[in-house]
Description:
Blueprint: H1 15-29, H2 38-53, H3 56-59, H4 69-80, H5 86-100, H6 104-172, H7 177-204, H8 210-217
Helix pairs in contact: 1-5, 1-6, 2-4, 2-5, 6-7, 6-8
Amino acid sequence: MAENGVTDPTLNLSQEELYKLGLTFYKENEGRNFHLAYQDKIDLVAFTQQANHGSLKQANLPPLGTLDIIGKERRAAWEKLGELSKEEAKSNFTSQLFKIAPGFKEFVAEQSKAEIEKQIEEVKLLKEKEEEEVISKAREEERLKEETQRRAIQDALNKQTFQQFKGYAEQQYPGNVDQQALLIKQLQEQHYYQYMHQLYQQQQCGTGGAENTLEMMGT
């Protein structure tokens, strides 16, 4: 359906998508925005029946009433399609619309453009999501690394200061093991935050880092 080098608007649409667009366009526009000849409408209906049910013989429908002239003409057109496959019937329906329905080609081109834009937006969103996941993963890995380093530093500091703080706690709360333990914990936390503050200042001056600190502490 490409003309004069113009990109075919149906290229990015499947036969099923094109058929559904054809049905929508026909139902919404025939009789309103354009009028087709009676026989053309009969033929189009026959294609839709074949697409939905297969051949008239396969459909095995009850006979029509004597006065149902239109119904008989529709069935006659349907019967002429013989064993035409459902996919071929859909293809013939849309091909016929392109030939006789004004505006259908433009409608398909518009829908095709919208579909392309939708796909581009979906790819963009997927890429952004993947990038966010990579950044989030990197942040989490960095957080875990920092947490591991923090714990290692704190454990090393606690080992170094335990006896000192234990002796001080025993002096402050003789015989009270629970209060001693609480005081030791408080002193260790205070010492840790003081140490980290000092370490931060050293890092600002470019004189060391957490990994170097661990090496110096012998852990």
